[in-house]
What does this fold into?
Amino acid sequence: MEGEVKIIVKWSGKEYEIPDIQQEDTVLSLKERIHKETGVLPERQKLLNLKFKGKAAQNEDLIGKLGLRPGFKLMLMGSREEDIAEVSHAPKDMPDVVNDLDIEEEEVEIENAEVYLSKIQKRIDHYIIVELNPLREGKKLLVLDIDYTLFDHRSTAETGVELMRPYLHEFLMQAYKEYDIVIWSATSMRWINEKMKLLGVSTHPHYKIAFHLDSLAMISVHTPKYGLVGVKPLGIIWGKYKQFSAKNTIMFDDIRRNFIMNPQSGLRIKPFRHAHITRSKDRELLKLSEYLRLIAKVDDFQTLNHRKWEEYKAKKSKQERRGEANNDE
It folds into this structure.
């Protein structure tokens, strides 16, 4: 029928046909149709390559004004409510940022609980890791979250690169010199792969990602205050790769509860939100890149307190400068 547009939406590794979109329909109407097909609410949808006059299309813009060709492929970012609930299992009135002090009191008991160690062993036995690039002898291990760590997954943008944390590629290039790098996100493997392609991480010529871990590698633990929460136990990696342990592994995540099973190995990174506002000021990856370089010389990471990483970095950098000054004399 004249005036209709068929749109194909790519989401979570699958393609969904959205037929019978009328020229006079709005972008919001399109989002409502996408919601019916994918289950992602309109307010959670980010349509990355939908533009009007060179800018991200707004809800009130008419489809007919966007100049879409038949069979136009649209990339959708967003999560269904049930998927979000499955990972977080948090009460509805729970704050967006978890009070880490509340979690901290429970860490020791949780990380040593036999029921959770048993869950980890099951993941070691049954979870299949697909190596993307070979692990290198003598390297330490860096495990990275994606959402709010490397990428602002809730802001809208014309391209995914606009939501990428500043200095991401420089950070990964520097880290790769001393660390094998693993990406671990509380989403599906298909979605992780899509994000890494979107950010240019999976094809970068100067660093390689060893492998990805998804939500299926996570386990759920019960905390007295927040109930059931999903976490990322590093023991799964250590059980499969004996060269890695708490001595040479560090994990970055914006939510401390994700490394509640390995609290001493985790570093809570400052969340990267509101990309368009904070992009010009965010230097977190540059600072942490220097921290990783400095601790790469440490034989046992268990001697470090990652909560005081900024103090450690400042102290060691000062010592290095003094050493260089003495050598010049």
The radius of gyration is 22 Å. The longest strand covers residues 14-22.
